[in-house]
Design brief:
Number of helices: 8
Strand order of the largest sheet: 5-2-1-6-7-9-10
Structural class: alpha/beta
Mean pLDDT: 96
Low-confidence stretches: none
Shape: elongated
Helix content: 25-40%
Strand content: 25-35%
Largest sheet: 7 strands, mixed
């Protein structure tokens, strides 16, 4: 079976590698244009492009796929490439561009999306972050038949994972591996003509809105459990943060401690090598891994050797 693939970040690269390893023929790879990255802001190819180029597969990088949009020449060229590829199916994973109807209709079996949630919960751009932030006990991957809506298509396959104390970084890697395995299963079933679709239920729909940098600033008036979830959800991006001592400090690991603190939210209650205790709503947050601007992520004991924090100071 001939497979076209559309994806950009590492999550998508893992799926592309799994599809190739399973023996499917990759006839075209779509990915976002190269972007400036790093200290030198040099153009850098996406993980998907790097993997595709290494295997000699044709790559297209349109800025848009809308034939009537801002970049009609890009879209027209991509359309020619898609038609020429004659793919049986297109697999889509974290691509980053909206697929117009002509793309959805181009492959014989349509477009299959690897979505990192148990649909219909957490449709949208940031399902991993939002599941952790909300305190969900589990999440998973859904293989979906794409339609014109926002993650509204019929469900084809799905499998759940327990979240535990995962950060977004750790959960991303677990879900990427699961997505690679499930899409291979889906393609094998599609090839055999036994892949079945089930409409998403109308109940339980939630939206995982894109994470903005402004969300990184911790609101200490929240309870400790909510703050700790945000610290985990925003690792690695945008990184939870709070100001103290005239600097903005990144907060990478924290624990919740029950029991009301007799101090306003954000107040430092105690400082030790084990962590920095900070008052939250009806509870206490213990910060155990922090980072100064331009510095490294450090355990609290090492961080405190280079940055003095005293009880009575206030975060935020």
């Amino acid at each position: 079976m001939k497979v076209a693939f559309a994806g950009t970040p590492e999550f998508a690269r893992v799926a592309l590698e799994a599809i190739a390893a399973a023996g499917f023929e990759i006839v075209l790879v779509l990915t976002q244009p190269d972007r400036p990255a790093g200290r030198g802001m040099k153009l850098q190819a996406s993980p998907v492009k790097q993997f595709a180029v290494g295997h000699g597969w044709p790559v297209a990088q349109p800025r848009s796929l809308r034939l009537d949009g801002k970049y009609p020449d890009d879209a027209a060229a991509a359309r020619e490439a898609i038609i020429a590829a004659q793919a049986d199916v297109m697999v889509v994973a974290a691509y980053g561009l909206i697929l117009p109807q002509w793309v959805l209709d181009a492959p014989r079996l349509g477009c299959l999306n690897i979505h990192a949630s148990l649909l219909p919960r957490w449709r949208g751009a940031a399902p991993i972050h939002r599941a952790i932030e909300a305190g969900d006990a589990q999440t998973g991957v859904t293989i979906m038949q794409m339609d014109a809506g926002l993650d509204t298509g019929a469900m084809l396959l799905g499998e759940s994972l327990a979240i535990g104390d995962d950060t977004t970084a750790r959960l991303h890697d677990r879900l990427a591996a699961l997505g690679g395995r499930l899409i291979v299963d889906a393609l094998k079933q599609a090839e055999a003509g036994v892949l079945k679709a089930e409409a998403q239920p109308a109940e339980g729909v939630t939206y995982a809105h894109k994470v903005e940098k402004a969300e990184a600033q911790i609101d200490w008036s929240l309870d400790a459990a909510a703050i700790v979830r945000r610290v985990r959800a925003f690792d690695p991006f945008p990184g939870a943060s709070s100001a103290i001592g005239g600097e903005v400090v990144k907060l990478w690991a924290a624990q919740a401690r029950p029991g009301a603190a007799a101090a306003p939210p954000g107040t430092v209650l105690a400082v030790s090598p084990a962590g920095i205790e900070v008052a939250a709503k009806g509870s206490t947050v213990v910060l155990t891994e922090l980072q100064r601007a331009g510095g490294k992520r450090l355990p609290a004991a090492d961080f405190l050797r280079g940055f003095e924090i005293r009880p009575g100071q206030v975060f935020g």
